[in-house]
Amino acid sequence: MATAGSRRPRLVLNFVLRVQGSHGAGWRHRSSEIERVPTLDYYADLARTAERGVFDSLFLTDTLAASANPEDALQWPLDPVTILGAVAARTTHIGLIGTHSTTFNVPFNTARQFASLDHVSGGRAGWNVVTSSTDLAAPNYGLDVLPEHDERYRRAAEYLDVTIDLWNAWRADAVVADRAADRLVDTDGIRAVNHQGTYFSVRGPLNVPRSPQAVPLLAQAGSSESGRDLAARYADLVYVQQNDLDEAVRFRTDVRSRAAAYGRRPGAVVVAPGLIPFIGRSVREAQELQHELLDLHGTDRLLERVSTVIDRSLDGYALDGPFPVDLVSDARDTGQSKSLAYRIAEYTSTGTYTLREVLAWVDSGSFHRTIVGTPEDVADGIQHWFERGALDGVSVIPPVLPRSFEQFVDEVVPILQRRGLTESSYGEGTLRDRLGLPAPVSDESRFTGHFDTLPSVSQHVPTA
Question: d(Cα 164, Cα 218) in Å, to the nearest integer?
Fold first, then answer.
């Protein structure tokens, strides 16, 4: 069995499940199964496909508001923790990572939900820690707008500290269950955390025993300064947008360096950039799928959208001519959430893309790296970045579901396995065990015995 801290599998495979597919027109494709999106069978079938490909984890994205775009109305229809708990019963090995906001929740509920998921999945739970990024969610929680960007990250850091403390508040041997001695728990093994901070006041402990991983896997998505720092301090897996190889290498180096400054082992952070694969028996066939989806969504609509975000007219430019990179030369990175104009500038910096290819990339969804080609082309692209030190894993975001994911699992994964880049079977142990990622521990100096400070049992009346 692998142990925490041991060498993890060569290349981590993370399946990012955007349930309509990553592409804006993915749901319209003849192979999509959009009608099944609100059903458990849809998620379970995709999770089992991921297990067939020996994926390490399934990463369920989420947002806390109805989309402003009616074509995305079914992209995030079900609560991640709820659906992953049900998927746990229909799978055996794959890690189950659910998105959950620190802006619109409280640590006790989060700790209880993910500890419960970790128990019912046998140690396969993970939490994608997000601070939320759309003002559409704010009125659903009594706010007019989101708190300021860096303020959300300061809250998230304290939120994580409290949640980790709550997970550690039960010692591993706290449940005794000695029937003869009438002793259910070791009362010294259950502690109040007594947190008093800027954003939260939490006594604790949880009413959930320590879970198999103690602390479910922690994931984080984002590349701002605050996001990098949060990732380096807490994250086990970082899901990030990267389109340029050199920038991806710099990002991974930076996050690992920051992790070391926090006293962590640099290799304890898995950097897994997003990848959108368009796969065909030939490059031309893969391009045909990409262009078919662009046509379904509407080329004119995309031209108008890109013209608006770069504040420049694209009238008169040939679709199959070079993208006019000078039109985005003044786009700037604010150090927080990157604008679409800046992402386009990053993507087109090589000057090798046509206008149609840029429109197709924008339309592919999420602005992640896109590879269009044969299964060998996709495998080559992954291997090249891996060997150059740009990533520890890939977060696969299929443009059309289930077709594109089945193609990746059945056609790309066997190539990666033959090359010795990914595992061909699952190891034993929890998700953390298999990835060789140790759980964070708490400073227990302020913890106190939970039962030492409570009134007598007779004064406690259970409530619903």
Answer: 10
| Of 394, 402, 398, 384, nearest in space to 290 by CA | 398
Instruction: Place 122 in a pLDDT band, splitting at 50, 70 and 90.
Output: very high
Distance CA 76, CA 79 (A): 8
- DSSP string covering 8-62, please? PPSSEEEEEE-TT-SSTTGGGSTT--GGGTTSHHHHHHHHHHHHHTT-SEEEE--
- DSSP structure class, residue 329: T
Copy the structure tokens of residue 353: 């893309």
Cα 4 from Cα 432, distance rounded (Å):
7
pLDDT in tens, 282-306: 999 999 999 899 888 888 888 888 8
Q: Which tokens hold the place of 344?
A: 């386009």
The 10s digit of each residue's pLDDT in 133-175 is: 888 999 999 999 989 989 999 999 999 999 999 999 999 999 9
3-state helix vs strand vs coil in the chain, percent to 5: 40, 15, 45
pTM for the structure as a whole: 0.91
Whole-number Å distance between alpha carbons of 99 and 182: 41
The Cα 321–Cα 348 span in angstroms is: 13
- Phi, psi angle pair for 272, to nearest 5°: -130, 85
| Closest listed residue to residue 100, CA positions, set 44, 61, 47, 136 | 61
